[in-house]
Amino acid sequence: MSELMDRRLINELLSGHYADPFSLLGMHQTASGLEVRAMLPDATEVWVIETNTGRKCAQLECLDSRGFFHGVVPRRKNPFRYQLAVTWHGQQNLIDDAYRFGPLLAEMDSWLLAEGTHLRPYETMGAHADVIDGVIGTRFSVWAPNAQRVSVVGDFNFWDGRRHPMRFRQEIGVWELFVPGAVQGQLYKFEIIDQQGQLRLKSDPYAFEAQMRPDSASMICGIPPKMEMPEARRRANDFDAPISIYEVHLGSWRRHTDNNFWLSYKELAEQLVPYAKEMGFTHLELMPVNEHPFDGSWGYQPTGLYAPTRRFGTRDEFRNFVAAAHEAGLNVLLDWVPGHFPSDDFALAKFDGTELYEHGDPRQGYHQDWNTLIYNFGRREVSNYLAGNALYWIERFGIDGLRVDAVASMIYRDYSRAEGEWVPNHLGGRENLEAIAFLRYTNRALGTAAPGSITVAEESTDFPGVSRPQEMGGLGFWYKWNLGWMHDTLDYMKLDPVYRKHHHNNMTFGMLYNSTENFVLPLSHDEVVHGKRSILDRMPGDAWQKFANLRAYYGWLFAFPGKKLLFMGNEFAQGKEWNHDVSLDWHLLEGQDNWHHGVQRLVRDLNHTYRAHPALYQLDFDPMGFEWLVVDDFENSVFVFVRRDRDGNELMVVSNFTPVTREHYRFGVTGAGSWREVLNTDSGYYHGSNTGNQGAIHSEAHPSHNREHSVSMTLPPLSTVWLAREAT
C-alpha cells in the first residue's frame, strides 16, 4: 500500500467507516512480503512472536500515533501462527491477535439463519466461549445488516470500539469476531455505527445473562446444557391430566420483612416450591423472568429474552429453582412475551439505525396501549430469533411450557386501533398473517423438538381454533385461557344474590362453547390490579357472605370443565389489590384461625380432591365428561351438574349461589345409587355454617327433572358441594 492509501484506510478504520477490518488487520501476503498489521491504541512497542517457537520474528512500526502498527516479517513467505508481545504503560503483555482467525459461522448455520429456519439460532448467535486453534476466547455474532461498522466492546478491551471491529458476513447481515482472552463472567456490548453514522451501544439480543437494571451490559455466559423432559412431566401436561396452576410474580410473592427486598431464586426454591406443593398445585406459572428494565412492567416489556433477570440471582440459580420445582413434582410454565418490546435505546429499538426488529410503519410497529414496539414477524430473522427463544427455555432450563402473552394483539392488525390507524393485510383483511404464521411455526417446532411441552394462549377473542392443529386451520396451541368464562362468572359473582337470577346464563354459557377449545380457567394477575379490586373484595355482602361467596365460587371453578389457574394470594383471599412493590399480605394468616385460613384450607383441599377424582379432569373437553342435572333454576340460583371420567365414574356438583339454606331440594340424577359428600365449601372447617347432609345422600325412585331417579338434599347457603357416586 502507498502511504496515502495507508492513511486513508487507517482513518476510515479509526473513524468506524471501514467495514472490512480483516482485509487490513492481521497477517497478509503482500508484494513487500509477509506483513502484520494491528490496531493497538496506547501501545508503545509491538513484536510478532512465532507461537510454536516463542521466537521474536519482527518488531512492528507505529504508523499512526492513534495505535496502528505494521511491519514485514523478514525471510517468511507463508502465514504462520503468531502472537503479539505488546507493551502498554511499561508492561509487556503476550496476546493473541483476533485478526488471525478465519470466518466463524458454519455454512449450514449461515444457510439456516438466512432462511429463518434455524431451530436453535442461540447456539450460533450471541457470545459463546470457544477454543480455536488452541486459543481460549469468545466468539461473538450479531445481526445488524444496515450498520456501517460493529465492534464488540467490554471488560476485555477497555470498552474501546477501536480495538475489536467485527467481520461483516454480507450474505446474512451478521457481524462476527473471535476475541482471544474474552472469558466467562466478563461484560460486553456491541458498539454500532448505524446507517446514519450515529454511535449506538447495544446489549446482545442473544445474551444468556445480563446486568440488573439500571445497568444493561450483557455477560459472557456459557450456554446451559440441554435437559431431557421425563415421561412423568410430559404426562402432567396432557389434556386428560389434572392441571392446577399457581401463577406467581417472583418479586412480590414474599419479601424480606426487614428491608422489603426480594427473595432470591435460592430462597424461592426453599419457600415457594414446598408451599405450592403442600397446597396441591400441579404447575407453577412464572410471570416473565426474562430481563426487563422497569419493575412496573412485571416483565411484560422484555429487553433480554434469553437472560433470566438478575433481580433474584444468577442464571444458574434460576435453573436450580426450576430443578427444585421438578424435584417437588411441580411442572413449570413460563410467561413468554413475543408480541412487543420496549423502546429503550440500549436494546432492540432501531438496532442498527433502522427498524430492524420492529415494523417501520408505526401503524404496524408501535403499540399504543403499552408504548412499546411490535416485532416484524414477516422478517425471517426476527421470527427465527423468537421461535428459537421458545425452544431455548424448554431445552436449556427444563421449562415445561409457555403461556404466550397477548396473542390477540399479535394476530389482529387492528387490535386496539381506530379506523385509519391500521394497515390491512395483502388480502384486505385485519388478520396479521405473518404473526399467525410465526405462532404456527413456533408451536409446530416445539411439538417436534420438545415433545411433551405445551403452549398456552392468552387470547381474548373468538379467533377460531387457537388450540387446534394447524392442519385444521388452527394456531396449534395446546391450551387457551378462557377469558370469556372468567368475565362472565366474575360478573355474576359480584352481584347481590337477589339479582343473580336475572344473570343465570352467565354461569351456564361457557358450556355452549366448551368443546371448541382446550380451555384453562384463569383467575389471573390481570383480575386483581388497576382498580378491579381483589377477588374477595368483589364478592357482595358482609364479611361472612364475601368469604362464603368466594368459597362457593372456587368450588365451582375447580369442578367446571377446564384446567385451573389461581394467581398468588387468591388462595388465601388476599384482601387488597396486588401490589408488585410489596409482599402478599401473609400477615392475614398470622395469629388466631380466621376466614383467610379457611379459604387457604379449602383451596388446598380443592386441589387434592380434584387430583384424586379423574371425573374432574379426564374429559375436560369432551361432551361425554359433563351433563347438566339442573340448569334452569333461575329463581333459586341453583346449578347441578355431573362430571364423568372415561370409565363412567361420576362426581356430582351442586351450587347454591344465594344465602338461603334450601332443605329437601329435589332433583333428578343419572341413576339409582348413593352419593358421598367429598367436599363442602360451607364446612365449618373452612369457617362456613357447617350445613350439610350427614356425609351422604341416597336416590329414590321418584321421577324428577325428566329422570326416573332423584335425590333430596339440603343445599347449604352460598355453597358448592361435591358428591362422588358410590360404587354399586
From TrEMBL:
<dbReference type="InterPro" id="IPR037439">
    <property type="entry name" value="Branching_enzy"/>
</dbReference>
<comment type="pathway">
    <text>Glycan biosynthesis; glycogen biosynthesis.</text>
</comment>
<dbReference type="InterPro" id="IPR017853">
    <property type="entry name" value="GH"/>
</dbReference>
<dbReference type="InterPro" id="IPR006048">
    <property type="entry name" value="A-amylase/branching_C"/>
</dbReference>
<dbReference type="GO" id="GO:0043169">
    <property type="term" value="F:cation binding"/>
</dbReference>
<keyword id="KW-0119">Carbohydrate metabolism</keyword>
<protein>
    <recommendedName>
        <fullName>1,4-alpha-glucan branching enzyme GlgB</fullName>
        <ecNumber>2.4.1.18</ecNumber>
    </recommendedName>
</protein>
<dbReference type="Pfam" id="PF22019">
    <property type="entry name" value="GlgB_N"/>
</dbReference>
<dbReference type="Pfam" id="PF00128">
    <property type="entry name" value="Alpha-amylase"/>
</dbReference>
<keyword id="KW-0328">Glycosyltransferase</keyword>
<dbReference type="InterPro" id="IPR013780">
    <property type="entry name" value="Glyco_hydro_b"/>
</dbReference>
<dbReference type="GO" id="GO:0005978">
    <property type="term" value="P:glycogen biosynthetic process"/>
</dbReference>
<comment type="subunit">
    <text>Monomer.</text>
</comment>
<feature type="active site" description="Nucleophile">
    <location>
        <position position="405"/>
    </location>
</feature>
<keyword id="KW-0808">Transferase</keyword>
<feature type="active site" description="Proton donor">
    <location>
        <position position="458"/>
    </location>
</feature>
<dbReference type="InterPro" id="IPR004193">
    <property type="entry name" value="Glyco_hydro_13_N"/>
</dbReference>
<dbReference type="InterPro" id="IPR044143">
    <property type="entry name" value="GlgB_N_E_set_prok"/>
</dbReference>
<dbReference type="InterPro" id="IPR006047">
    <property type="entry name" value="GH13_cat_dom"/>
</dbReference>
<comment type="similarity">
    <text>Belongs to the glycosyl hydrolase 13 family. GlgB subfamily.</text>
</comment>
<feature type="compositionally biased region" description="Basic and acidic residues">
    <location>
        <begin position="699"/>
        <end position="710"/>
    </location>
</feature>
<dbReference type="Pfam" id="PF02922">
    <property type="entry name" value="CBM_48"/>
</dbReference>
<dbReference type="Pfam" id="PF02806">
    <property type="entry name" value="Alpha-amylase_C"/>
</dbReference>
<dbReference type="GO" id="GO:0003844">
    <property type="term" value="F:1,4-alpha-glucan branching enzyme activity"/>
</dbReference>
<dbReference type="InterPro" id="IPR013783">
    <property type="entry name" value="Ig-like_fold"/>
</dbReference>
<comment type="function">
    <text>Catalyzes the formation of the alpha-1,6-glucosidic linkages in glycogen by scission of a 1,4-alpha-linked oligosaccharide from growing alpha-1,4-glucan chains and the subsequent attachment of the oligosaccharide to the alpha-1,6 position.</text>
</comment>
<dbReference type="GO" id="GO:0004553">
    <property type="term" value="F:hydrolase activity, hydrolyzing O-glycosyl compounds"/>
</dbReference>
<dbReference type="InterPro" id="IPR006407">
    <property type="entry name" value="GlgB"/>
</dbReference>
<feature type="region of interest" description="Disordered">
    <location>
        <begin position="689"/>
        <end position="711"/>
    </location>
</feature>
<dbReference type="InterPro" id="IPR014756">
    <property type="entry name" value="Ig_E-set"/>
</dbReference>
<keyword id="KW-0320">Glycogen biosynthesis</keyword>
<keyword id="KW-0321">Glycogen metabolism</keyword>
<feature type="domain" description="Glycosyl hydrolase family 13 catalytic">
    <location>
        <begin position="247"/>
        <end position="596"/>
    </location>
</feature>
<dbReference type="GO" id="GO:0005829">
    <property type="term" value="C:cytosol"/>
</dbReference>
<dbReference type="InterPro" id="IPR054169">
    <property type="entry name" value="GlgB_N"/>
</dbReference>
